[in-house]
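Recap from last week: sequence in, structure out.
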Amino acid sequence: MKKFILPAILVLLNGCGTTIALTPEQRTSIESLSLERKVDKPKTAEFGGGIKRLLSAGGGAIGSLLESSTQTEDQRFTTLLNDSGIDIAQIVYEQFDARLKVHPFFGPRYRDNGAHKLRIEVSYYSYLPKNMFTNYYRPIVFINYQLISPSSEVIAKGVTSSGATNDRIPQQTLEQVHSDPQILKGAFTTAVNETINEILDSLMKK
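Predicted structure tokens:
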């Protein structure tokens, strides 16, 4: 049950945590904006249980590596991501960078050394069942953001997430993941973009 309680708590924190909304006046004052390159992330992803089912789906080099490990399920899932070249911090930066470049408002103002800075951090990421009664899993990604003025004042901040019930995010069985771990990259990329949608929407609210 723990794996379902933690995301629920995070959702509550998302709704009740300290948020600073960007005012229309502050937004119109933005002449240039840059995205900070460093994106922090947790040391491990959270895995929603059932790692043994993944290991028993076929074995192989990755399965053997994880089977022999003394790591926790979360650590073993993080090892799978790392061995598959899936870096959540890199995905978040690359997707945010791409989205800002083409954004109607931020795009013309986006540059390497903008006066305003957007700082982002992955505060939590996981791979959880869609619900307690399914074999299909989806990623969840929480992103903290801060918009910092030229005078170093935080003028907007918040935490936003994708969700396991968001049907725009691809879902997979563990057997599918074992056959092709790279499908995780596509799923996490979609989850990240769903989260970025929420952040950009919040920065553009009137």
